[in-house]
Structure formats: structure tokens, C-alpha cells
Amino acid sequence: MKNTGPYVQWILLALLLLAPFQDFIYIIFLMKVLCFALFACAFNLLLGYTGLLSFGHAAFFGGAAYISSHVCKEWGWTPELGILAGMVYAGVTGYIVGSLAIRRQGIYFAMITLALSQLIFFLALQLPFTKGEDGIQGVPRGHFLGLINLSDDISMYYFVLAIFVAGFVLIQRTIHSPFGQVLKSIRENEPRAISLGYDVAKFKLLAFVISATIAGMAGSTKSLVFQLASLTDVHWHMSGEVVLMTILGGIGTVLGPIVGATVVVGLQNYLAGIGSFSTIVLGAIFVICVLAFRRGIVGEIQELWNRKNQSKASS
């Protein structure tokens, strides 16, 4: 599976490039999947490759959505500058939250991130520019570089796809760099990493900031797609959803978060018609998937592939 990974990624990219020309695909739904897939990939960098479970990533995702929406609507910034502003917010907030949270480990780390995320939720509810429970509505998509009108869904889709690919490539390069190898060693055996002379706290903090920044990129992009920033984006439920996406797809796999995000967003979309019962159905599906695929969907596929190769080699 390791050798076939790049081919799978190129095939996936080709399918995404051709997707808008398929009549059976709803392009807004596809853009939503890409935004949440990027969000899940950012979270997976922290959980899957550093071993840090954060319950506060909605603060970066939703907070960046508010910042981008505000600067684009009220200040007239172009979409690329709006997304950049959201990323700066997410990076700075990630540095503050990470500096406090990495002082603890395990459940204490998770609870600190959750508590600070709830603080961001309270600010989003109370600050005047966020418009309270109404959120920031009617956010203009604008013109990319002042040239390409993003009001057209096709143009907006390729803009979102370009952002997703840029974020995905950045995460992949981080994972396969010497920095990424240190993160994996921290995940596997932190005391050993310390004994080798690595400043574990700095590596954790940098991983946290990168993850938060890319999560902010995803949130900012989503606010432009739906032209809305709301309290849903900063609620703790959003942090729970990205955890489910990552676990369902496969923790510590490159494509796992993308698959997990596609499954979760797809189920939410197609089960919306049954009302409140959709939550029960979703919960049941997640329980079954977690019990049946303990490594996640992609993780199980990789394991089956490895077993197959081993059996061929032994025979």
C-alpha cells in the first residue's frame, strides 16, 4: 500500500478535477467535503502523527471563519486575503492555546483545549462583529486576485480544490520530513525522544500551530463557500465531528481523514431527511464502523494489503 499511495492520490486528484462535469454530483456538497477533509487532515497531523488529542479545534476552524467573513464583508478584502487573515488568526490562537495545553498530557491536554475552545465560543456569541446567534451572513465570495469571479460555483469549486491540494501537500511534506519523523517518535515513545536530545515541547507546539493554521484555512474556505459564519462552526460538536472523521477514516494514515470526512458529511447530507432520528442512525453507524474497523477504513485496507503482500512473499 505504501508504494501504491502516490498513484491513489493522483487518481483521486483526477477524479476531483473532473467531478464538476458529472451531472449526478452536487458541487456545493463536494466543496463542503473538501473543506472538512482539509480540516480532518489538519487534525490528523496532531492526533495521528504527534499523539495529541485536541477537543478544541473548532476554535481555529470556526474562529477563522468569523475573521474571514468579517474582513471580506465589512472591509472588502479579496477572498485570498480573507483566508490568509483567518489563517493568521488560527496560527496565533493555536500558539496561545498550544503553549498552555502542552504543559499537560493525555486527558488533561484534551480538557485544556476544550476549555479554551469554549472561551472562543463565548466570545463568538458575545462580540458585536460576530452578530451573535445570527452569525455573519451574506459573505461575498469576491474575485480571486481581482480577476476570477467566485460567485460562479465552478470557479469557486476549483478555488476550493486548489486550497485543499495546497493544504494536503503541506501536511504530507510535513509528515515525510525529518520534523515529521521526530513527531512520530514523540507519538511512539516520548521519553526516548527526550533522551535523544529533542526539545519535545517545541516540536509539539510547532505541530499544534501548523495543525491549527491549516484548520483555520479550512474554516475560512467553508465560510466563503456557504457565505456564512455561525456558532455551529465554533461549537464543541464541531471538534467532536473532526475526531470522528479522523478515527473513522484511520488515524495516522494520509488518506484516512479524507475518507472519514467524505463518509461523515455524506451521511449527514443523505440522512437529513429523517430529522432528529439522523443522529441516532449516525451514532449506530459510527459504533459499528469503530468496532468493525478498529484501524479505521483506510487503516484496515492497508493492513489487508500488507498481509496479502506478506503471504505472497512467504509463498
What is this structure, in a nutshell?
The chain has about 325 residues and is mostly helical. Helices cover about 70% and strands about 5% of the residues.
Please give a structural write-up.
A two-stranded antiparallel sheet has the order 1-4. A two-stranded antiparallel sheet has the order 2-3. 43% of the residues are buried. It starts with a helix and ends with a helix. It has 13 helices and four strands. It is 72% helix and 3% strand. The mean pLDDT is 89. It is globular. With 315 residues, it is mainly α.
Largest sheet features: 2 strands, antiparallel
The general outline is globular
Q: pLDDT below 50 for ≥5 consecutive residues: which ranges? A: none
Query: Number of DSSP helices?
Result: 13
Which class of secondary structure composition applies to the elements? mainly alpha
β-sheet strand percentage? under 5%
Distance between the termini: 19 Å
Structure characteristics:
two-stranded antiparallel sheet; 315 residues; mainly alpha; 3% strand
Strands, helices and their partners?
Layout: H1 5-18, H2 27-50, H3 58-73, H4 79-101, H5 106-126, E1 136-137, E2 143-144, E3 148-149, H6 153-175, H7 178-188, H8 190-195, H9 200-226, E4 228-229, H10 236-249, H11 256-270, H12 277-292, H13 297-314
Antiparallel strand pairs: 1-4, 2-3
